[in-house]
Amino acid sequence: MINTMSSAVFLCLLAALSTAEAVRTLLFSPELNRSFFFFFTLSLPFPLVDGVCLNGGRSVPSFVTGKHLYCECLDGFTGTHCETAKGDSCVEGIGLYYRGTVSKSVSGKTCENWDSQIRNRYLSSDLHSGRHNYCRNIQYRLRPWCYVRKTYQLVKEYCDIPRFTPAPSAAPTTPQTPAEQTCGQRSSRKQMKIVGGTVAAVESHPWIAAIFWRTKSKENVFRCGGTLISACWVVTAAHCFPEGSQARHRRFSVTLGKNALNESDPTVEQTFRVEQIVIHEGFNNSEQNYNNDIALLKLLAKHGKCAEETNWVKTVCLPPPLQSLQPGVTCDIAGYGKEKFGLWYKSQYLREAQVNILADDVCRQTDYYGDMVNNNMFCAALPDWSQDAWGGGPLVCEVQNGLFFLFGIISWGDGCAKENRPGVYTRVTNYNTWIAEKTRLPSITAGTMFPQK
User: Fold this and answer.
1) Same structural domain for residues 305 and 414?
2) 74-88, 175-189, 244-258, 415-429: which range is least confident on average?
3) Do 60 and 202 share a domain, yes or no?
4) Same-domain pairing of 106 and 210
5) What percent of the chain has pLDDT over 90?
6) Which of the two residues, 370 and 277, has the higher pLDDT score?
């Protein structure tokens, strides 16, 4: 029986990671990650770009084209080319990589030294092997924190460390480009390996949207993931609205730039009420086939404006109509949801995984899904079936020059990460005309940013 994902729609990411304490310690080691990256690059079939990344940074190539994708900077440097020194008095993003020496909390109290358990698990590669009291973001919270002593008890407090702000660039000498021509650009590629999956900073997926539903008791419950395609429009899955045309838009809201479901950061997040819900007229899940599993949410503008572009909030590009991907291409999925199939609780953090596109004829074989998969869908999975996803969120692919295009909407699957049961995605390029008609924004569906052959 196909999992209907009713009442709550989850993202499921399974990673074949050991639960041994030693492995968990290694997964949090930046030095190990850089060593792995060094040996990995030796086996690449194409040369890395020299001179692109400064101050000891390494160029990371695209797995598809082999061209430079982004710079992995050494601690203490940031920027597109690692050109800017951060120092130890400010943090970038939520401060996952902060290695400064600030040791006071927001209340002005001096931080306590980290205990041996935390040092062994998280800080073995840190300064003095973690034997210090410096603020760190070791459990993926909103910013670096530490323990302080209050009334003879140890409590967690955030540290008052300013955010890193890059120097303003010179004024452009050419006219500003339309908004749709700035789509699909990541601010950075930041992620942290943990047992059960990969946690990603929202800068890595700045188009991700978290859709919430307000209950009668005024509680905001996470309903689905979505993708920002223009300042005022989010695309998601139609199955996220089991109420169908009866779904009340006033009870929904959308938050952009969200790192964790159970925490809010008003300096990063942008939240909007929903003005309109548009569910595809052809969606009918009475036979559990999820055909035409696509919907649009129009954000209610504030003072005449919807989403504003920042490092944490950006639109994704849409490919041209009917554009297809070659089997085997690696793409990214992201969202908030279950860490393991069968767990009742959601992952609190934004997670990501990479999947490979499957050939249509493979996914339609009888030992896969047969005729349940039609031309409005495609399948993607990893060869070892170790990761999968559900929940209305995006499947995006880096095509060229670091631009990401939305090819799929996480739709359905049988179980999660089961062998011969890949994830099934709505084929977005079949709906360019429909999106243009509903949003009245034909420019975003023309696919003008897609590289011409």
Assistant:
1) yes
2) 74-88
3) no
4) no
5) 33
6) 277
Q: What is the pLDDT of residue 84?
A: 55
Query: Is the domain of 70 the same as that of 124?
Result: no
pLDDT category at 172 given cuts 50, 70, 90 is very low
The pLDDT, as a whole number, for residue 182 is 78
Q: What is the CATH number of the domain that holds 144?
A: 2.40.20.10
**Could you give the CA distance from residue 127 to residue 100 in angstroms, rounded to a whole number?**
9
Residue 362 and residue 379: Cα distance in Å, rounded?
9
Q: Where are the beta strands (DSSP E) in 112-248?
A: 145-150, 153-158, 191-194, 197-200, 208-214, 220-230, 233-236
**78 and 220 assigned to the same domain:** no
Say what the alpha-carbon torsion angle 408, 414, 419, 423 is, to the nearest 10 degrees: 0
Q: Are the C-beta atoms of residues 82 and 70 closer than 8 Å to each other?
A: no
Contact 253, 214 (CB under 8 A): yes
Burial of 383 (0-12, 13-18, 19+ CB in 10 A): exposed
Residue 447's pLDDT band, with cuts at 50, 70 and 90, is confident
Give the pLDDT score at 107. Answer: 92
282: domain CATH number? Answer: 2.40.10.10
Is pLDDT at 315 greater than 60 in this prediction? yes
Residues 6+ apart with CB under 8 A from 42: none
Sign of CA dihedral 138, 139, 144, 149: negative
Output helix, strand, coil percentages for the chain, rounded to the nearest 5.
15, 30, 55
Could you tell me if 112 and 256 lie in one domain?
no
**Total structural domains within the chain:** 3
Q: Name the token pair of 19.
A: 């639960």
pLDDT for 13 beyond 60? no
Q: How many residues does the chain have?
A: 453
Domain range spanning residue 135?
Answer: 90-165
Do the domain assignments include residue 388? yes
Q: Take residue 251 and report the two structure tokens written for it.
A: 């009870």
Partners of 105 in beta bridges: 159
